Amino acid sequence: MTRDSALWYSDGNVVVGSGSTLFRVHKSVLSKHSEVFDGMFSGPPHTGEEVDGCPFVRLFGDHPSEVRCMLKDMYGLRDRTSRKVTLEVLCVLVRLGEKYDIPAMRAEGDNILRELYDVSLEVFQERNQAVSLFGGSLYCGTPDPNARADFPIAPWKRQHCFDIYVLARDHVMNTIAARALYGCCRWPLADLKLELTTLLTPDVLWACALGREILAKRGGVQLLKLNPAHLKTIPMPMGLFSASAPCEKQDVCGPALEKTFKIVRLGLAPPRQYPVGEDDRYALIQRLKQELCGSCQARVTRAIQDDARVVWNSLPDLLASAMAGAPA
Questions:
Q1: What is the DSSP string of 86-149?
Q2: What's the pLDDT tens digit per position in 254-303?
Q3: 6 phi and psi, to 5 degrees?
Q4: Which helix (H) or strand (E) holds 160?
Q5: Least buried of 43, 63, 90, 161, by fewest C-beta within 10 Å?
Q6: Which of these, 173, 146, 1, lies nearest to 86 by C-alpha position?
Q7: Which of 19, 17, 34, 21 lies closest to 75, judged by CA?
Q8: Rounded to two decimals, what is the model's pTM?
């Protein structure tokens, strides 16, 4: 067993062990922050194993680096020069915050998860669009997230969506889990390997496979919003085109819309696998809009965006069967 160099206090009155690492700390500090430790230390006098004359408490299932992070947070030693945290710190805040009933840690972890994924569709798309100009996106690409002050994790890697999915799923944060799973489902199946993340358990692979199927089906439903009759009913915001703005080239727009909708209706349209993404990344809509006048383009964009918002808000229900895990 090795003493931790930073968390070994000569006047500490309890030794906490994790793996092969020992931490000599103070009961009062642990009790102040954790209901679990408070209950442990307020019980009958310790009669078990001791280390250096102090009661010894072994923690099971926690990595020494996680315990070190938890104790540093309790002692106010965590680096707070930036509001951003690492993925490891986030996992500690949520997992150990709940396991040892540390309200402040759990609340901070929950808030960070909400900053990540409990956002509006517009914020999600704007984050992706802003960074994609430089070759990637925060959720599904590989840029430096420090470019955005409103993004709480640094450094962010594309595969972190798997960690967030499992973390949120295991702690019953269904909205966060579903939106993180959306990011997992966008990962190319050929690249889903253990080298990517150790979290590729059968349940996670099942969730990704079923999730992709569910999203593709929902994307097909979204394309039905291209029905010309439906597009005529869509009101446009003031300042763009009024609700009654006439088509500027009916002889072109009408046939183009009918042709595209026929392709959709016959099931010949390519799969729209990511129905909360921006429509300009989907070739069928992109080609259609190139043929349309400004008024019709705006209505197509509005129709898809309105439905994308519905999908985004309903992801927890939409992906519930995928998150439930593989059938026994």
A1: -HHHHHHHHHHHHHTT-HHHHHHHHHHHHHHHSS-HHHHHHHHHHHHTTT--TTTS---GGG-T
A2: 999 999 999 999 999 998 988 998 665 689 999 999 999 988 999 999 99
A3: -95, -30
A4: helix 160-170
A5: 43
A6: 146
A7: 34
A8: 0.87
Q: Cβ atoms within 10 A of the Cβ of 262, count?
A: 11
Q: What is the pLDDT of residues 2-35, one digit of tens each?
A: 999 999 999 999 999 999 999 999 999 999 999 9
Q: What does the alpha-carbon distance between residue 201 and residue 198 come to, in Å, rounded to a whole number? A: 8
For 1-31, give the DSSP string. Answer: -EEEEEEE-TT--EEEEETTEEEEE-HHHHH
Q: Closest Cα partner for 318 from 217, 201, 199, 186?
A: 217
Tokens (6 digits) for 175: 């909205």
Relative to beta strand 50-51, strand 54-58 is antiparallel
**Cβ 143 vs Cβ 131: under 8 Å:** yes
Question: Which pair of tokens denotes residue 325?
Answer: 């895990």
Cα–Cα distance, 80 to 308 (Å, whole number)? 37
Domains, the chain, ordered by start: 2-113 (3.30.710.10), 219-315 (no CATH)
Assign 175 to helix, strand or coil: helix
Residues sharing a CB contact under 8 Å with residue 253, sequence separation 6 or more, in sequence order: 247, 291, 292, 293, 296
Taking the alpha carbons of 120, 126, 132, 134 in that order, is the dihedral positive or negative? negative
The pair of structure tokens assigned to 155 is 């450094």
Can you read off the two tokens belonging to residue 218?
């929902």
Paired strand residues for 51: 54
Residue 134: predicted pLDDT: 42
